[in-house]
Amino acid sequence: MGDIGIHVTDQQGQRHQVNAAPGDNLMEVLRDNVDVLMGICGGMLSCGTCLIRCEEKHSGTLPAVSDDEAEMLDALEVAQGCRLSCQIEIEPSLDGIELTLARED
Ligand code: FES
Fold first, then answer.
1. How many angstroms is it from 15 CA to the middle of ligand 1?
2. 20 to 30 A from 42, CA-CA: which of 32, 51, 56, 68?
3. Residue 105: which residues within 8 A CB-CB, separation 6 or more?
4. pLDDT tens digits for the chain (105 residues)?
5. What is the CATH class of 4-101?
């Protein structure tokens, strides 16, 4: 566990703070600490269960969307600001970021 703090609101509106280390995969951090149902495809861009929404003030903090992730986000028809957390590697710049789990059940 690292010292990069991530604030997460789950589907029930409950807030969590999780800590991660640089190089960790965001989906794995969220799955292990907040929602065990995340990431059922293991990050292969085929399930959409790792969907998160980022507060707009933090959106520039996340790494750029790859073409493959953009294609999956289009297929899921998600709202602006949503990302697939399996495609995001933890970096020090993410410290303090606020996210909401956005998977539809
Ligand atoms: S874990 Fe399946 S799309 Fe991200």
1. 22
2. 56
3. 11
4. 789 999 999 999 999 999 999 999 999 999 999 999 999 999 999 999 999 999 888 878 899 999 999 999 999 999 888 999 999 999 999 999 999 999 876
5. alpha beta
